[in-house]
Amino acid sequence: MASTPKPNYVVMTVECPYPDCQEKQTVHVIARTGFGQMGDQTIKCVKCGKDFDVLVPDKIIDGPFGTNLKQAVAIVKDWVKNP
């Protein structure tokens, strides 16, 4: 049984804009050749849970993820199991 390939993506770091939080987190943005249309997308902060807009070059396909090592390791382990 063939699995559906995951799209190519780039990892971008964004920061929660709220002064009482400012948590750094990552999102996966689809990677395409050519020019994309920059646009705002709304994500929910992994720490404070508030929504905020981020300006990214294309569609966010996964995330946000916290940037601490424990979370990053869990993400990579999951990806290795389910490429």
Write a brief caption for the model.
This protein has 83 residues and is α+β, with helices and mostly antiparallel strands.
Helix/strand layout:
Layout: E1 9-15, E2 24-30, E3 39-44, E4 51-56, E5 60-66, H1 69-81
Antiparallel strand pairs: 1-2, 2-5, 3-4
| Estimated helix fraction | 10-25%
Mean pLDDT level? 80
Radius of gyration, CA atoms, in whole angstroms: 14 Å
With strands numbered from the N-terminus, the spatial order across the biggest sheet is: 1-2-5
Number of domains: 1
The number of helical elements comes to 1
Can you summarize the main beta sheet? 3 strands, antiparallel
Poorly predicted segments: none
Strand content: 35-45%
For the termini, the CA-CA separation is 14 Å
The computed structural class is alpha+beta
Apparent shape: flat
Structure description:
With 83 residues, the protein is an alpha+beta fold. It has one domain (9-81). It has one helix at 69-81, and strands at residues 9-15, 24-30, 39-44, 51-56, 60-66. The strands form two sheets. Strands 1-2-5 form a three-stranded antiparallel β-sheet, covered by helices on one side. Strands 3-4 form a two-stranded antiparallel sheet. β1 (9-15) and β2 form a beta hairpin.
Descriptive labels:
83 residues, alpha+beta, three-stranded antiparallel sheet, two-stranded antiparallel ribbon, 1 helix, 16% helix, 40% strand
